[in-house]
Amino acid sequence: DTGVSQNPRHKITKRGQNVTFRCDPISEHNRLYWYRQTLGQGPEFLTYFQNEAQLEKSRLLSDRFSAERPKGSFSTLEIQRTEQGDSAMYLCASSSRDRGIIEQYFGPGTRLTVT
Amino acid sequence: EDQVTQSPEALRLQEGESSSLNCSYTVSGLRGLFWYRQDPGKGPEFLFTLYSAGEEKEKERLKATLTKKESFLHITAPKPEDSATYLCAVVRGGATNKLIFGTGTLLAVQP
User: Fold this and answer.
1) CA torsion A55→A3→B105→B81, rounded to 10°?
2) Neighbouring-strand partners of residue B66
3) A105 vs A5, A91, A95, B65, B78, CA distance in Å?
4) How does residue A98 score in pLDDT terms, banded at 50, 70 and 90?
5) How many CB atoms are closer than 10 A to CB A46?
6) Would you say residue A99 has pLDDT above 70?
7) pLDDT > 70: percent of chain A
8) Closest residue of A to B5, CA-based?
9) Going along A1-115, which residue ranges are E strands?
């Protein structure tokens, strides 16, 4: 399977704990995106990487959230001191610069539940 | 402010009953409009990209069209397996690449 992969698929954590999610993009894609989706809503943009550079961040990405893509391949999204409002599906997507604007291909998501 | 509005919120069809989903948008300098399909508990699956007014794309029973203010996703003779949430998203002009999504249309096709 050469699609976008995300791990873990599900995460249950207690309020105040830190969590980290991983995304592996499609191998030839140099652009990587993180989105968050709550029930009944469309995905909301969080941040975007081109190779290892983080080029865009949403105001939704508070100082408790940090994302990295150290070698321009996989990416991690960390949430510190989780709150119940962080419960959501966290989606990763990737796209290829070589093909223009480009459609983004999404992974299966990581479902976070904060208790 | 950029905005994407989808209607209806939910649609129930009988198998074979054709219909259309609407996506109206307000965005500065549209660079592209995208349609995705999302099944429960899964990530969105890419369907179409439309770049300019008058453009049309087709895939099996689905056809997407674009005007300067809205896009339609036409579903011809739907089958139960077409049941899903259909999401519309846009990318605005400028340096950004972020997708701005609508809230989706939940389609249920009954046999």
Assistant:
1) 180
2) B71
3) 11, 10, 6, 21, 24
4) low
5) 21
6) no
7) 96
8) A42
9) 5-7, 10-13, 19-24, 31-37, 44-50, 53-57, 65-68, 75-79, 88-95, 105-106, 110-114
Q: Are A103 and B46 inside 8 Å of each other by CB? A: yes
Tokens found for residue A65? 């959230």
HEC assignment per residue over B37-103: EECCCCCCEEEEEECCCCCEEEECCEEEEECCCEEEEEECCCCHHHCEEEEEEEECCCCCCCCEECC
Task: Please judge whether A106 and B44 are an interchain contact, meaning their C-beta atoms are less than 8 angstroms apart.
Answer: yes
Answer whether residue A60 shows pLDDT above 70.
yes
DSSP B33: E
The count of other CB atoms within 10 Å of the CB of residue A95 is: 24
Closest CA to B62 of B40, B86, B28, B31: B86
Selected for mutation to probe chain A from B92, B99, B101, B105 (highest A CB count within 10 Å) is B99
What gap in Å lies between CA A104 and CA B20, rounded to an integer?
A: 24
> CA A89, CA A69: separation in Å to the nearest integer?
20
Residues of chain B in contact with residue A91, where contact means CB-CB under 8 angstroms, are: 43-44
Q: What is the pLDDT of residue A101?
A: 59
Contact B97 A44 (CB under 8 A): no
Could you identify the residue written with the tokens 């309020």? A15
